[in-house]
What we know:
This protein has helices spanning 16-31, 52-57, 66-84, 101-110, 157-166, 186-198, and strands spanning 2-7, 36-41, 87-93, 117-119, 125-127, 133-140, 173-178. It is of the alpha/beta class. The protein has a single domain, classed as Rossmann fold (3-Layer(aba) Sandwich), CATH 3.40.50. It has a five-stranded parallel beta sheet, with helices on both faces. It has a two-stranded antiparallel ribbon with strand order 4-5. Strand 6, helix 5 and strand 7 (173-178) form a beta-alpha-beta unit. It is globular, with a radius of gyration of 18 Å.
Amino acid sequence: xxxxxxxxxxxxxxxxxxxxxxxxxxxxxxxxxxxxxxxxxxxxxxxxxxxxxxxxxxxxxxxxxxxxxxxxxxxxxxxxxxxxxxxxxxxxxxxxxxxxxxxxxxxxxxxxxxxxxxxxxxxxxxxxxxxxxxxxxxxxxxxxxxxxxxxxxxxxxxxxxxxxxxxxxxxxxxxxxxxxxxxxxxxxxxxxxxxxxxxxxxxx
Length: 204
């Protein structure tokens, strides 16, 4: 069994989402003997943002610069890692109400027609990656729960839930550290809650 571990935070060892995603991976490794972990750090090794040149280069017989070819090859490796993984653990901090651009670049390489989604005879999208388990560690500086005044500004959990539903993963598990910058002691409290949830992850 393969587990793909993806992180997007630019904060390194100071990152809450990285701490929680790492704890989730360690818990699942303990629960699932022999699991193979594939690591992708989108902050230290970012994937190029998708451009018209990248798309044009995918056409049969198209010419492209060496840089575009290399970047498309890396995007292809990211897609293959996702396709081969049975479990995906993602560290996703909230930056300005949304996911980091590094994570969006990865998503743009993973949501590929004919690979992770398609369209039925009626024109409706059909997810092709529904046999995966996805666990997402989210960190948020403030409070953005459905019962808070800032709920309408939350575009990380809602976006990622939609992204994975689109490719067929209906039940995404979220480990959320909320309010980590909202006041003294709240970072530690939020981290304890999320780490506690990570510690209870099961093999299935």
